[in-house]
Design a protein that fits this description.
heterodimer; A: two-stranded antiparallel ribbon; B: alpha+beta; PH-domain like; 2 domains; four-stranded antiparallel β-sheet; three-stranded antiparallel β-sheet; 7 strands; elongated
């Protein structure tokens, strides 16, 4: 049984890596992009999608009981595609 | 940001004539990858509902699904955006004085090549393939006398029109830079032209 908190921690670590890489990408776009609507619009779209995903996920995560644990293989037992 | 109307190193009276990127058809791989990024988490959800409907009914497993799907979607979007940035920052600019070829390779590799128009020796347009012919896009090669002997504009729209325009601009720029042109390419063989040029070059 693996506590759900471990998965949340992994998610947070990935989120930090994602944030750093996103900032670098946006920095390059802003620095070298041709000033105009296309540059602004695409960068804004990326930011909206990223923030939207993070906020939507976080909103769900607030309702989760992180103290519970999960058995990764028990959920698949009994499935016709998983029968060890 | 790069201001198209105030390019670095531009002359006072320099005017932009052409500004273009690769043909949008080259974005098809990006569109396919973006579709996959959106479709895969949804597909997995539908697949799990079909194979084992009670799996996602458990809150722990649904939480795992949301954790995985959100990270996959975010990194997928980032990857797609980086591919788009590589396309967007790859630009070709033709002014009445020079040609600028800005090549973006990946995120942190950028090459800016500049050519004075009067140093252009030859311009070739190449369209190969059914799709290229139907959509009128291809490569333009600019033969120069400089360190980089051949500029290549890859997969640009209307390459024949671009090549013709560059030739016309190069011819006009050569007339303005007669001294440098004669030094570069030598006097013409035709006696009349030689006399005309000699008279123009006299102090």
């Amino acid at each position: 049984m693996i506590p759900l908190q471990y998965f949340l921690l992994a998610w947070l670590i990935f989120l930090v890596i994602y944030t750093v890489m996103s900032l670098l990408t946006i920095m390059q776009m802003v620095r070298f992009g041709i000033a105009g609507l296309g540059t602004y619009a695409t960068t804004l779209l990326f930011l909206v999608l990223s923030l939207g995903t993070i906020l939507a996920s976080s909103a769900y995560f607030l309702t989760v009981d992180w103290s519970s644990s999960v058995d990764l293989f028990s959920g698949l037992q009994g499935s016709m595609y998983f029968n060890p | 940001m790069l201001d198209i109307h105030h390019l670095p190193g531009s002359d006072l009276h320099e005017q932009n004539v052409l500004f273009f990127r690769r043909h949008p058809i080259t974005l098809i791989p990006l569109i396919l990858i973006s579709s996959l990024i959106v479709a895969l988490p949804i597909g997995i959800y539908i697949g799990l509902q079909i194979v084992q409907p009670e799996f996602l009914a458990k809150p722990e497993y649904f939480t795992l699904y949301i954790l995985g799907a959100s990270i996959f979607f975010m990194f997928g979007c980032l990857f797609a955006f980086q591919m788009f940035v590589e396309y967007w920052l790859d630009v070709f600019i033709v002014t009445d004085k020079r040609i600028l070829d800005i090549d973006q390779h990946g995120l942190f590799s950028r090459t800016v090549s500049e050519l004075r128009l009067y140093r252009t020796q030859d311009v070739t347009a190449e369209i190969k393939g059914i799709l290229h012919t139907l959509l009128d896009y291809g490569d333009v090669y600019v033969q120069t006398a400089g360190e980089m002997e051949r500029f290549k504009f890859e997969e640009v729209p209307h390459p024949n029109h671009v090549a013709k325009l560059i030739l016309e601009l190069a011819e006009a720029d050569r007339r303005e830079h007669l001294e440098e042109t004669v030094e570069e390419f030598g006097m013409p063989d035709d006696d009349d032209k030689k006399d005309k040029i000699a008279r123009r070059l006299e102090p």
